[in-house]
Amino acid sequence: MKILITTEWYSPVINGVVTSIVNLKKELQKLGHEVRVLTLSNEAKSYIQNDITYISSLGVGKIYPGARVTLFKNYKYLQQIMDWRPDVIHSQCEFSTFRIAKHLEKCLQIPIIHTYHTVYEDYTHYFSPNQKWGKAMVAIFSRKVLRNAAYVIAPTEKVSKLLQSYGVKQPIKVIPTGIDLSCYQKSDAEKQRIHIRKQLNIPLDHRLLIFVGRLAKEKNLEEVFTYFSKIERENMSLLVVGDGPQRASLERYARKLNIENNVIFTGMISPEEIPSYYQSADVFVSSSNSETQGLTYIEALASGLPALCRKDPCLESVVEDGVNGWLFENFNEFKCYIERILLDQNSYNTLSANASKKAYDEYSSVAFAKNIENIYYEAISLYHQSKKDIVYINQSGINQ
Hints:
CATH topology of the largest domain: Rossmann fold
Protein name: 1,2-diacylglycerol 3-alpha-glucosyltransferase
Oligomer: single chain
Domain Glycosyltransferase subfamily 4-like N-terminal: 14-182
CATH class of the largest domain: Alpha Beta
CATH architecture of the largest domain: 3-Layer(aba) Sandwich
Domain Glycosyl transferase family: 195-357
Radius of gyration: 23 Å
Pfam families: Glyco_transf_4, Glycos_transf_1
Largest sheet: 8 strands, mixed
Keywords: Transferase
Helix content: 40-55%
């Protein structure tokens, strides 16, 4: 099968969507499929590099940090894709590259499968001063975009229910995003733990909490900082791995709370190095409620880290209370659960083992790719059957 994946972002950009696409592409190729990616260039020129087509684009960071759009007029690069003749398009974003996907779908008469990665309700502060109107706009926008898809893939049941509440009529399949977890369990984990801590001047005897992700408003890191400032932290540190538009304000907030000596900001870290940072820590923490699935949660679990996260429907099947971590709703729960995780070593070891087992059993990239492959075959079959039915109905009408 020939598969075209369209996306606003791709390597070297680092985010959950890109991680998902990279892993899917790799696993689909292992299954014997031809896979190409169409994405936006980070400059005003188009080019092809290996099996990736980069389309010229412009930055529109005022709308959303890192956002880009294309006013694409040069169809030479699209013609090369059409000459390749993909069997299916798997769209990963709802904006410029989705418009291109619709153009290709019309020209090639092939189905679009779309993965709905982002809960835009949690991002309305970027484009609407009124939250109610912002959510209404998201619902209208989502319905309009997704009516062009043969199938919609939701990474969690939470997202599936949200799309149904928007009035989306397309078939929705819940398929948790798969991750290549092989790099999160290393034989030299203890060596990496010591190396990272020495590099960042974190005492080896400190219990280390870690957050990994984009430093943006929707991640709600202020809550983690506030709660961290209220607990006994004499032998505890918080490691913040990542970068983003809120970094400077978070650094100021840490100073305001007098926790700057216990909070370490790493800035942007390359994907290859991320596993070592997980292995340097003891507990994964997050207060985000803007996740669709939260790939960093699964990476942390695969690294053997119990998770302590704000309660959210999308995490209920990922983090199980008392099994591989805890979900909190307020400070008292945060404080209670961090003590349960860290005060008893035997309990910690059990949580850690359960965390790793669940990640590998349920969220591997191999299982993900096979589930997606089945959707492709089903969508292609139904799409072409529907076209035959339309032709038959039209011919019947003419004959009558």
